[in-house]
Design brief:
Elements (H helix, E strand, L loop, with lengths): L7 H8 L3 H9 L7 E3 L2 E3 L2 H10 L12
Antiparallel strand pairs: 1-2
Length: 66
């Protein structure tokens, strides 16, 4: 059985942002992919996790030259 689609509120809680941030990101063409179900926006958890993974920043530690 596939994982249920998530609501805006569930995704916002998962990401630690306000639900309004997701609305803003939609207008700015940012944030995780979503699907329209009637008038509602729903998120596939796989897309949310992929979006989070795509935003990872790799830090490399370098020793300053002496």
């Amino acid at each position: 059985m596939p994982e249920p689609l998530a609501t805006k509120e569930q995704v916002a809680e998962y990401l630690g942002v306000h639900p309004g941030t997701l609305d803003r990101w939609v207008g700015e063409k940012e944030g995780p992919a979503y699907v329209k179900v009637g008038l509602q926006r729903r998120y596939d958890w796989n897309d949310v996790r992929a979006w989070v993974d795509s935003r990872k920043v790799q830090h490399t530690s370098t020793t300053p030259a002496a």
